[in-house]
User: What shape does this take?
Amino acid sequence: MTSVIQKPENTPEHCPGTESDQAGKASACSGCPNQQICSSGPKGPDPGIALVKERLESVKNKILILSGKGGVGKSTVTALLSRALAARDNDQNIAVLDIDICGPSQPRVLGVADEQVHQSGSGWSPVYVDDNLSVMSIGFLLSSPDDAIIWRGPKKNGMIRQFLSEVDWGKLDYLLMDTPPGTSDEHLSAVTYLSQANLTGAVIVTTPQEVALLDVRKEIDFCRKTSINILGVIENMSKFICPCCQKESEVFPANTGGAERMCNELNVPFLGSLPLDPKVTRCCDEGRNFIEEVPDSPVIKSLDKIIAELIKKCQNNF
Amino acid sequence: MLETVNHIILVLSGKGGVGKSTVSTQLALTLVEKGYKVGLLDVDLCGPSIPYLLQLEGNDVHQSDSGWVPVYTDEKQNLAVMSIGFLLNNRNNAVVWRGPKKTSMVKQFLTDVCWGKLDYLIIDTPPGTSDEHITVMENLKNIKCDGAIIVTTPQQVSIEDVRKEITFCKKTGIPILGLVENMSGFVCPSCTECTNIFSKGGGEALAQLSNITLLGSLPIDPRVGGLLGKACVKEIPDSPSAKVFNEIANAITVV
Assistant: This one.
């Protein structure tokens, strides 16, 4: 008689299945947030999943911002998107959740670096950047910018669970989740905990050069393995416009055709490119609102197109 | 396995995409040009870039009696390379692993590769201060490690993450050899005006603030990114980047 191994969805690779004798004991199980439950039985999913589902019920669109590569502008693009979405319609509520535990950038990019998070009866209150834009990050919990979070996976997982299940967002139209580079603990945890919460999809950020695309292809593979809907790819830093002679040049040459060609090859939607504008990078570095400061930047124009495209993609989901 | 290695140097950065891998490869190639035998270990498991940067994609790692045989860039075997990229069947495949599995892989990389006699082993790391880094530290505790080179870009957002990495080094007792500021300016090819795309002077300010040596500032030079396995100091010896790589190599070989 052949036994059929029952595997829950969105498990790590080589998951032995919850019913198996090896559940919670195989090498793939170490570090999985379900390990203890699997090994000690009664078998069942992590109770966190239900908590996250309940907490995020009042959030309409939940979007992960991913990239295999670091420093391509995930945090900047997250900030750009959230600010632009918030500026579009004052009645829509936008929030940003920074799940980059070791290198949180959102507090700085959104200009709220010195704020603190408060606890209330209904959970952690996020920090408000604007009336309709709030943010939560581990950066708010650190006492000094020098403080390092030297945590292994399981501890990071616990923090992400808390972020997803204990922040009092209120009613939201968009929740953008900024992630660290890679395809590891933080990503797996976010995907596991969001599995019942109706995740809208992922936006993938890249830069044009092959060394970045190489890692981004892995991220697309990750999305497919964990069945996350890919809303599209944004190419950041695609061209540099010299502030002196206005000529365009390539800082990171797209020697293999850039993101658009990769999207065609892998059959994922391409949302658009954002040029490099030193004025915008400076605004982000200093946490100022670029929509007010540099409204005529080519970045804003490209961003508008991307946002329109993204909103369409989100609406198609319903 | 690391007893036959004279010097071990870590390349770290809290921030991703600042050029750790580019600095690691060019530094390794510069040392090879100077006549040393060098090893390059890529412990970035989720985003290995070294095989591409050295144009070694598609090479396989072989198993011998004494351990894994690294991949060599040429017949003289002056540069030995090890990366998880050599163990993947397909370059698009993702390594979706949680911490403990990554930890055991890194441990294997540190203990099971037969490097042979090396003057320098350069270890390229992923961004952050987590599993891979803790494992490398723990395993190097009993071995003499020269120290870490920290790479940053000039903007505040990057400096902030790098400050965390410096704290990590201090907490784990790794000496910091110095700081390298990458992407410090871009010279427009049409009007030669130098623009500081990612602001300026952040590395210098950080070096002063944290009391560490600034080893050099590398400008953005698309030619360096396009070298793919060739040494910057040999191919474009007159470029500002080549000068800086020479200075860095001199600084670490004196130690």
Summary: Chain B has one domain: 2-254.
